[in-house]
Write a structure and sequence with these properties.
- The complex is a heterodimer of chains A (296) and B (322).
- With 296 residues, chain A is mainly alpha-helical.
- Chain A folds into two domains: 71 residues; 214 residues, MetI-like fold, CATH 1.10.3720.10.
- In chain A, helix 3 crosses helix 14, helix 4 packs across helix 11 and helix 13 packs across helix 14.
- The termini of chain A are far apart.
- Chain B is mainly α and 322 residues long.
- Chain B has a domain of 196 residues: MetI-like fold (Orthogonal Bundle), CATH 1.10.3720.10.
- Chain B has 13 helices and two strands.
- Chain B has a two-stranded antiparallel ribbon.
- The longest helix of chain B has 41 residues.
- Classes of the chains: A mainly alpha (296), B mainly alpha (322).
- At the A-B interface, helix 2, helix 4, helix 5, helix 6 and helix 10 of A face helix 1, helix 4, helix 5, helix 6 and helix 8 of B.
């Protein structure tokens, strides 16, 4: 009986539970509504890409069209100036695909050098590399442009892809942080077994590097896919346009009329990045978090 | 001979390491260091991409062209004897960029931290919400979203449709009105607070829960706890986010290019520094002048980053609770 007396009454228990429930509902509704408002523009873009010409500016606010008008996609895909979006997507896939592979591979190799090999001048070169993170691309891109144009490389993918063989300071740093988390004892054991640094890299580190490499690859892919300045400068032939540069011309305010088609191609241009995000979300979030935290 | 043996010893000890570093070192020397020296030299010339043959050394002419109006000069004689005009839009581009950086970066960080604190709970739904709030960051850097933004904020766009429906009248065309155009770009940037949010979220998870419990026992309220525990323990992460976002914001280009239609917008109200540099270098082929602009941008970013680092000893705390 005395024990019962110490227990809170049933009334306060219910009241407490009700208050918790109310707080929980408020929380989820608030987060949900704000999230919906944030996503609204993107949902609207996709919704409008399915609206017919009679509906797009009359049934404006709706996210779901009254009738789905798929012709927008056919009309948009036809492109402009005789070049279709098939070409633009092909170019973007070449640039983002090859660019990502080259950049991430190079970054992994360099990161191993920094993380696991002792050498004279290591801290100096590491500091230099970190400083390059701060460099605005504008101080390099003008001479690069001049040199590449003298080599006759304008309107080729060479100026876009070649610099990526040097890796990227950001990814090198990210992968270094990851390698530091791999037990050094593994290297030592391999060394005792007669493995050189090259062997250690390929047999010990590389197989464990998968999460870091995937994270770097996702970022490399979506930054390259969205890259605008370099393709804008180097590619002046519509047959070589990437999707981002093509969209710019396609939606030129002076000429644009068929907004259904523009929205359709704009939506389509977001699909690869979105698919990669959904497939590899876990890696992405962990990648951002660890790079940011170790950096501090 | 001693020199030779030293070199060979250095090579023997370091060959493997430098082999791994080769891609980056090559990239650094060929694509970073050499272009940097090249562009520094170009910045003292009147290099025109279409007539490289007639390039002349003009000393500080390009820098005078940028900052001449500060001294009330609109024309001056370069060291070559040629009359040069001060760039009438340079200071405008500088002020547009500074406004953009100093408004958008703090706002973005405030939103990122607020949402991170809301999402810092052990709930099954949090990863989903985190993904939802990250999507604008994921897609926002694209040309597609910039094109969409321009459409949303035009005079008869969706935004004004909503505002009209809830009773607002006399709504401006946000993109075409020089008073508001930059704000639409700030909004577009703040909307993309996802990366900072995720970094804050990871930082918040590292703060030991006991600190808050102890503060509760001492009778500290939530606001006091925020300023006494959360902010100090999060300060290294705040600094990291601040520096990364600031460096990024100074280099923002794509969104301004699209929203201004390849130019600086109405009355140059969205003439970002990088956009002005692009126009000078690639539309007018004035690559000597554009190089000088690039070096000033580098200096600005360098100085501001150094200031943040230097100031960190006043507001960033390390090792508390470790």
């Amino acid at each position: 009986m005395r024990v019962d007396a110490l227990k809170p009454s049933r009334d306060t228990l219910t009241a407490d539970r009700n208050r918790k429930l109310l707080r929980s509902i408020t929380y989820h509704v608030f987060i949900g509504v704000v999230g919906f408002v944030m996503l609204y523009p993107i949902l609207w873009l996709v919704g409008s890409s399915f609206k017919g010409p009679d509906e797009i500016w009359t049934n404006t606010a709706a996210l779901i069209p009254q009738t789905f008008y798929f012709e927008n996609y056919a009309n948009g895909w036809a492109g402009y100036g005789g070049v279709s979006f098939a070409t633009f997507f092909k170019n973007s896939i070449i640039y983002a695909g090859l660019g990502t592979i080259i950049q991430v591979t190079a970054s992994a190799v360099v990161a191993f050098g920094f993380a696991r090999v002792q050498f004279t001048g290591k801290s100096f070169w590491f500091a230099v590399m970190m400083l390059t993170l701060m460099l605005p691309i504008q101080v390099q891109i003008i001479p690069q442009y001049i040199v590449f144009s003298r080599l006759g490389w304008l309107n080729t993918f060479l100026p876009l892809l070649l610099p990526r063989f040097g890796g990227s300071a950001f990814f090198i740093f990210m992968i270094i942080q990851f390698i530091r988390g791999i037990p050094i004892e593994l290297d030592e054991a391999a060394q005792i077994d007669g493995c050189g640094k090259v062997g250690i890299f390929f047999r010990i580190i590389l197989p464990q590097l998968q999460p870091a490499v995937i994270t770097a690859a996702i970022f490399a892919f979506y930054w390259t896919w969205d890259d605008f300045l370099a393709p804008l400068i180097y590619l002046n032939n519509p047959n070589l346009y990437t999707v981002s540069v093509a969209l710019r011309s396609f939606a030129d305010p002076a000429a644009a009329t068929d907004w259904g088609a523009i929205f359709a191609m704009a939506s389509l241009s977001l699909v690869p990045v979105f698919v990669v995000f959904v497939a590899f979300q876990r890696y992405l979030v962990e990648g951002i978090a660890t790079t940011g935290l170790h950096g501090s | 001979m001693r020199m030779m043996s030293r070199i060979s010893r250095f090579l023997r000890h370091n060959a493997v390491a430098y082999m791994f570093l080769t891609p980056w070192l090559l990239g650094f020397f060929v694509l970073t260091l050499y272009p940097m020296i090249y562009s520094l030299l170009l910045s003292f010339t009147d290099y025109d991409f279409t007539m490289p043959g007639s390039t002349q050394w003009i000393g500080l002419g390009n820098y005078m062209k940028m900052f001449g109006s500060v001294f009330g000069v609109s024309e001056f004689t370069a060291s070559t004897g040629e009359l040069m005009r001060v760039d009438p839009y340079y200071l405008k581009s500088l002020s547009v960029t500074f406004t953009y950086v100093f408004v958008s970066v703090p706002l973005k960080l405030v939103f990122a931290l607020a949402v991170a604190m809301l999402l810092n709970q052990k709930l099954r739904w949090v990863p989903f919400y985190r993904a939802v709030y990250y999507i604008p960051t994921l897609l926002g850097g694209s040309v597609a979203i910039a094109v969409l933004w321009r459409k949303l904020f035009e005079k008869d766009g969706l935004v004004n449709g909503f505002l009209g429906a809830i009773g607002f009248t006399d709504l401006p065309g946000w993109i075409t009105n020089p008073n508001y155009a930059l704000r639409t770009l700030v909004l577009l940037t703040v909307w993309q607070f996802g990366s900072s949010m995720i970094i804050f979220l990871a930082g918040l998870k590292q703060i030991p829960q006991e600190f808050y419990e102890a503060a509760n026992v001492d009778g500290a309220n939530k606001v006091q706890q925020f300023f006494a525990i959360t902010i100090p323990l999060l300060s290294p992460v705040i600094m990291f986010n601040l520096i990364m976002q600031m460096i990024g914001a100074f280099q923002a280009f794509t969104q301004a290019y699209i929203i201004g239609g390849g130019r600086g917008g109405v009355l140059n109200s969205t003439l970002f520094y990088t956009l002005h540099l692009y126009i000078q270098g690639w539309t007018y082929h004035e690559m000597g002048y554009a190089s000088a602009m690039a070096w000033v941008l580098l200096l600005i970013i360098g100085v501001l980053t150094a200031i943040v680092f230097r100031s960190s000893k006043w507001w960033v705390s390390y090792g508390v609770g470790e």
